[in-house]
Automatic annotation (TrEMBL):
Residues in the signal sequence: none
CDD domains (UniProt xref): bacterial_phosphagen_kinase
Protein name per its UniProtKB record: Protein-arginine kinase
Keywords: Allosteric enzyme, ATP-binding, Kinase, Nucleotide-binding, Transferase
Keyword Nucleus: no
Occurrences of domain Phosphagen kinase C-terminal (ranges): 14-245
Length: 344
């Protein structure tokens, strides 16, 4: 089954993925911050056991686990693949996960809220992500009574999630706007409309390979449909800005951009060691070159899939062992060399 980051998707030159995340709490338990260890463990086991119905009520297969007992490599790799959040990894209490085999649906248990239902699709397809998340939410609501107020909506640990409890987000690739130094200004502009521009892994993270997340900041006072429509309109404007900036680069800096793209390809093809940060920068330049048709490769190649696979946790996950930073840099360079497509 294809993972979300392996899909051929709409507007993938700019939009990498679409995500819906629903924050839910169970009426019978205190909020996560107030849970004692016994309650946390009971919550995780109860939700995991009840989650077995997803296999029969959806068209996917699911696995579940206790996240806090996983190896550091496993947890890091799942954060890198956007399956779980860094906050879930950091919690010392019992935490859990229900995950579809294609990794498009995940339910984090005892993160900031009791449940974080997440649905991800490749490219610009947030309507499909919402449809899937809503289905999982309906099934879960049949199993548990949610903490809900007729006046305020879904009750959550953080006041900014009260209401729909929904975060709609796009992961976007903005290399041209990054090169132009316009990201800070863009973030300020989006903030005026209640939309946040964050790093690759969300709040308080930095951007790697010119990849950012754009999401709604408020959930109270708007319906799910209104949140999605507003975000779609904003992301379409961001896409236009990014594409206009790429056109500007083609017209005004063609030779410089072409040289940079081919240099990036050459380093990736022949380097014997490459760090994670350098690899992301070089792969971002190569992806931009392919999208702008500055360089042509012999197949419809998914650069973002390679970006995911060469992260520190996922490299060690493939080897099934921990290795040093220097060893990772060597293995990463070899891994990239073997998977880069040939230039036409």
């Amino acid at each position: 089954m294809l993972k979300w980051y392996k899909e051929a998707a709409k507007n993938s030159d700019v939009v990498i993925s679409s995500r819906i995340r629903l924050a839910r709490n169970l009426k019978k338990y205190p909020f996560s911050i107030k849970l004692n260890d016994q309650q946390a463990n009971q919550l995780v086991q109860e939700v995991k056991e009840a989650g077995k119905v997803f296999d029969t009520q959806t068209d996917k297969r699911y696995n579940s686990c206790n996240v806090n007992v996983l190896s550091e490599i496993d947890k890091t790799a799942m954060v890198e693949r956007h399956v779980i959040s860094p906050l879930l990894v950091e919690k010392e209490q019992s935490t859990g996960l229900i995950l579809s085999e294609d990794e498009k649906i995940s339910i984090m248990i005892n993160e900031e809220d009791h449940l974080r239902i997440q649905s991800v699709t490749g490219g610009m397809n947030i309507g499909e992500a919402y449809k899937t998340a809503n289905l999982i939410d309906d099934i879960t609501n049949e199993l548990f009574d949610y903490a809900f107020s007729e006046k305020y909506g879904y009750l959550t640990s953080c006041p900014t999630n009260v209401g729909t409890g929904m975060r709609a987000s796009y992961m976007v690739f903005l290399p041209a706007l990054t090169l132009a130094g316009r990201i800070t200004k863009l973030a300020e502009e989006l903030g005026k409309y209640g939309v946040a521009l964050r790093g690759t892994y969300g709040e308080s993270s930095k951007s790697f390979g010119s990849i950012y997340q754009i999401s709604n900041q408020k959930t109270l006072g708007s319906t799910e449909t209104e949140i999605i429509e507003k975000l779609n309109g904003i992301v379409e404007q961001v896409m236009r800005q990014e594409r206009r900036q790429r056109e500007y680069l083609l017209i005004n800096s063609f030779d410089e951009m072409e040289d940079k793209v081919y240099r990036s390809y050459g380093i990736l093809k022949y380097a014997k060691q490459v760090s994670s940060d350098d690899a992301m920068t070089l792969l971002a330049q190569l992806k931009l070159g392919i999208d702008m048709e500055l360089i042509h490769v012999g197949q419809n190649y998914n650069i973002h899939e390679l970006m995911m696979e060469i992260q520190p946790g996922n490299l060690q996950y493939q080897l099934d062992k921990a290795i040093s930073c220097t060893q990772r840099d060597k293995f990463r360079a070899d891994y990239i060399r073997k998977r880069l497509p040939d230039i036409v």
